[in-house]
């Protein structure tokens, strides 16, 4: 979302329900297991930035309490990343729904829609894409497109293990298309929300000197810029709510590795999936906010024409993030599409 606005180009072995506590990875002779290390204040995982306490939005606070970290193998048998996600409490007969997020965002983007997906009986996973969200990236891995794809595939292979309905909003649509084309066994259908898929990567940003890039990333974290992006993204919400939602949207920026991971992604060139669109074999649903000020609905129409099998639905009185503004409408569309043949 921010990139577009700024034109920057089966269940796991143990189902860990209830209030989430922080997890850490402990090695033993059989490999890796997840163990608890206590919890944070007010039920929040202790790995979340302390700024989570300032958030007022009850949906964000409730979902934040459910965030956990699961070990995901990234490079050989000895390398794991403790990867942040919201894990479903039950397994459904239908294909699981996997929720990605926008550029430089987190699983908290699904704070209002996630409970509704659970109410609808769907098995929903909200994942943090490698390099964003709340994973443990103290030893920073590469955060380029290939690494993000491999990490997502390893997560799917370890914990989900069935073809999914993959949901990608904004730049998350590029993540979803790239994954669907390169890992077709993992994806049954695609849902693309206000998709940002025609930017040719990060463009000239990939060529910036590092000192300039770090200065730009510091600006990207700033509250005024994030607030401005929210004003573009949402269709006329009250200022008080916008201020709070800005804090939700930038919470992950307080992670100690965030700046380095963002620079790593920028200089890698970012997502350029234009040539992959016509290679998509899965059925796709495009969802558009009627009043999107960040990604033109004309681009959504272009995508509708270029995808081999797709249809489109518009959400009235909604901007760039209809899954936040109009979650019931979006969840109804996702649930119906997930269950359709």
UniProtKB/TrEMBL annotation:
Annotated ranges, domain AB hydrolase-1: 97-332
Keyword Ubl conjugation: no
Signal peptide region: 1-17
GO molecular function: catalytic activity
Keywords: Signal
The keyword Transmembrane helix is annotated on this UniProt entry: no
Organism superkingdom: Eukaryota
Official protein name in the record: Monoacylglycerol lipase ABHD6-like
């Amino acid at each position: 979302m921010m990139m577009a606005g700024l034109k920057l180009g089966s269940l796991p072995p143990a189902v860990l329900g209830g209030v989430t506590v922080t997890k850490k990875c402990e090695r033993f002779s059989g490999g890796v297991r997840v163990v608890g290390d206590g919890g944070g204040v007010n039920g929040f995982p202790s790995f979340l930035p302390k700024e989570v306490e300032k958030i007022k939005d009850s949906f964000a606070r409730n979902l934040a309490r459910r965030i956990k970290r699961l070990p995901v193998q990234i490079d050989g048998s000895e390398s794991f990343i403790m990867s942040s996600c919201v894990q479903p409490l039950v397994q459904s007969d239908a294909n699981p729904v996997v929720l990605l997020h926008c550029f430089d965002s987190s699983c908290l983007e699904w704070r209002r829609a996630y409970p509704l997906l659970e109410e609808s009986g769907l098995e929903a996973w909200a994942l943090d894409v490698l390099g964003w969200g709340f994973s443990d990236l103290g030893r920073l891995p590469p955060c380029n497109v290939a690494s993000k794809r491999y990490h997502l595939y390893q997560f799917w292979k370890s914990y989900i293990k069935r073809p999914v309905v993959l949901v990608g909003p904004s730049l998350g649509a590029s993540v979803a298309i790239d994954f669907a084309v390169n890992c077709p066994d993992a994806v049954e259908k695609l849902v693309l929300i206000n998709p940002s898929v025609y930017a040719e990567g990060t463009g000239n940003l990939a060529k910036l000197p590092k000192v300039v890039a770090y200065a730009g990333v510091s600006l990207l974290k700033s509250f005024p810029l994030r607030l401005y992006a929210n004003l573009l993204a949402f269709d006329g919400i009250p200022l008080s709510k916008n201020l709070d939602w800005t804090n939700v949207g930038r919470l992950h920026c307080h992670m100690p590795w965030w700046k380095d991971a963002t620079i790593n992604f920028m200089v890698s060139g970012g997502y350029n999936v234009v040539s992959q669109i016509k290679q998509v074999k899965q059925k796709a649903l495009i969802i558009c906010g009627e009043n999107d000020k960040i990604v033109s609905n004309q681009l959504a129409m272009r995508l509708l024409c270029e995808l081999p099998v797709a249809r489109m639905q518009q959400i009235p009185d909604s901007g760039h993030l209809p899954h936040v503004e109009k979650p019931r409408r979006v969840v109804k569309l996702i649930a119906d599409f997930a269950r359709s043949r």
